[in-house]
C-alpha cells in the first residue's frame, strides 16, 4: 500500500500503459484521477479499477491535454474537489509513422503537442497542487520512450519529442527539487497496447521486434506500470532527474 491516502492524476489513463498504471496505483491505496479525451474509455477503465479495489477509488476528467483551456479546467476541477495532489503521471502520447519527406508541418506540430507540449501544460497548471504544505512523497513521472534514446524508422517527430521530454524531465527535477517534488521519466521499449496493436497484427513486424529485443518478446503494460509506480513512490526517494529504460534489453542488442 505504497500510495495509501495519496491522490494521483494520470493522463492517457483510458487504455494501455496509463490504465495499467492507474490500476497498480489504486491497488496500492491511491485515489486515481483518470484523464483522457474519450469519456467512454475513462468510464470503463474507472469501473474496472473500482471493482478490483472494492471501493470507489477513481475519478475521471475528460480533457485534451494539448489544449490549455482543457488543462485549466482540469486544474479548476482539482482545486474545487481535492485542493491538492501527490502524484502526477504524464502518460498521454502517441505517434503516426512517416518519414521526414512525408511528414507535414501539421503532423510534426501535432506529435510535439501530444508528447511534449502537453507535459509542459499539465505540469505548469497542476504543480500548484503538489504543494509544500502536504509534505511527504510528491512526485511526477513522465512517460518518454526508447525512441527518445535511439533512432526508430519513420518516427523523426516522435523521437525528437520524446528526447525533448527526457531533458524537460531533468529541467523540472532541478527546478522542483527545492520544493520537495521529484521528477523522473520512464522510457518503455515495445509494449503491447492499442497504440502498437496495428503493428503487432503484422507477424513479420512482431518477429522483427522480438529479434531486436534481448528478452525476445514484446512488453506488457503491467511491466511498465510497475516501474512507473516505483518511480512515483517513496521507495525512489533519492531518485530525481533520472530516466528509467524498460525496454526488454533492446538497447543492448
Ligand atoms: P495508448 O493505449 O494509445 O494510450 C495513450 C492514451 O493517451 C490513450 O488512452 C488516449 O486516449 C490518450 N491521449 C492521446 N492523446 C491525448 C490528448 N491529446 N489528451 C488526452 N489524452 C490523450 O498507448 P500506450 O502505448 O499506452 O501509450 C502510453 C504512453 O507510452 C505514450 O506516451 C506513448 O508514447 C508511450 N510509449 C508507448 C510505447 C508502446 O510500445 N506502447 C513505447 C514507448 C512509449 P484518448 O484518445 O481517449 O484521449
From TrEMBL:
Keywords: Oxidoreductase. The keyword Oxidoreductase applies. It catalyses: D-glucose + NAD(+) = D-glucono-1,5-lactone + NADH + H(+); D-glucose + NADP(+) = D-glucono-1,5-lactone + NADPH + H(+). Pfam families: adh_short_C2 (PF13561). GO terms for biological process: bile acid metabolic process. GO terms for molecular function: glucose 1-dehydrogenase (NAD+) activity; glucose 1-dehydrogenase (NADP+) activity. Its EC number is 1.1.1.47. Transmembrane segments: none annotated. Belongs to the short-chain dehydrogenases/reductases (SDR) family. This is glucose 1-dehydrogenase [NAD(P)(+)]. It comes from Priestia megaterium (strain ATCC 12872 / QMB1551).
Amino acid at each position: 500500500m505504497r500510495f495509501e491516502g495519496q491522490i494521483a492524476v494520470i493522463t492517457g489513463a483510458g487504455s494501455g500503459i496509463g490504465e495499467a498504471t492507474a490500476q497498480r496505483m489504486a491497488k496500492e491505496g491511491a485515489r486515481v484521477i483518470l484523464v483522457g479525451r474519450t469519456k467512454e474509455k475513462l468510464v470503463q477503465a474507472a469501473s474496472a479499477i473500482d471493482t478490483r479495489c472494492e471501493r470507489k477509488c477513481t475519478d475521471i476528467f475528460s480533457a485534451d491535454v494539448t489544449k490549455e483551456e482543457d488543462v485549466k479546467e482540469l486544474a479548476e476541477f482539482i482545486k474545487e474537489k481535492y485542493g491538492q495532489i501527490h502524484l502526477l503521471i504524464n502518460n498521454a502520447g502517441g505517434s503516426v509513422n512517416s518519414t521526414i519527406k512525408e511528414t507535414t508541418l501539421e503532423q510534426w506540430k501535432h506529435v510535439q503537442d501530444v508528447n511534449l507540449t502537453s507535459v509542459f501544460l499539465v505540469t505548469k497548471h497542476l504543480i500548484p497542487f503538489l504543494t509544500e504544505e502536504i509534505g511527504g512523497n510528491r512526485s511526477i513521472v513522465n512517460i518518454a520512450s526508447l525512441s527518445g534514446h535511439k533512432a526508430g524508422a519513420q518516427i523523426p517527430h516522435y523521437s525528437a519529442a520524446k528526447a525533448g521530454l527526457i531533458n524537460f524531465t531533468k529541467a523540472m527535477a532541478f527546478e522542483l527539487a527545492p520544493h520537495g517534488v521529484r521528477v523522473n521519466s520512464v522510457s518503455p521499449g515495445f509494449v503491447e497496447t492499442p497504440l502498437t496493436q496495428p503493428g503487432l497484427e503484422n507477424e513479420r513486424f512482431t518477429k522483427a521486434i522480438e529479434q531486436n529485443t534481448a528478452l525476445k518478446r514484446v512488453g506488457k503494460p503491467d511491466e511498465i506500470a510497475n516501474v512507473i509506480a516505483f518511480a512515483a513512490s517513496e521507495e525512489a526517494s533519492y531518485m530525481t532527474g533520472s530516466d528509467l529504460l524498460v525496454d526488454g534489453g533492446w538497447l543492448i542488442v
